Structure formats: C-alpha cells, structure tokens
Amino acid sequence: MKRPLTELNVGKNAVIYGHNSEGAIRQRLLDLGLMPGVEIKLVRHAPMGDPVEIKVGMTSIVIRIAEAETVIVDASA
C-alpha cells in the first residue's frame, strides 16, 4: 500500500516508492539517502509531532513533517 511517510506507524518499516517534491527539497532528501527502493523505519515523532525521526540503514535522520509528507512509501514490503 503506497502512502505518505507521515501515515506510517511508529516502529514500522517501509520501502521508499518515490517523492512528490521538487528542486532543493527533493535533492536534500536524496542526499540524505531517501532514494526509491531503500528500506526505512519510522522511529518516532517529536513531542509536538514535528519533526519525525527515521532510520535509513544505520543512520538516523530527522526531517520536517512537510518534507516527510512528500516521501511516498510502500508499507506492504
């Protein structure tokens, strides 16, 4: 099931399907390792909900909700 990263439950794994972002934000996400086909795990939300922490391989990454909304994941993997 393909959906935005923000709809993934904490502790769940998913595979990145693609991005709905453009320009500098898209490039930043790709530079952080958020590329299609990569498995990620949603670790936690900040106390106020923004930002979110995700695990990409052995690396923890923190991104804003607005950026996470543009990352499309497949949680059925």
Automatic annotation (TrEMBL):
Keywords: Iron. Residues 3-75 form the Ferrous iron transporter FeoA-like domain. SUPFAM superfamilies: C-terminal domain of transcriptional repressors (SSF50037). Gene3D superfamilies: 2.30.30.90. This is Ferrous iron transport protein A. It comes from Endozoicomonas euniceicola.
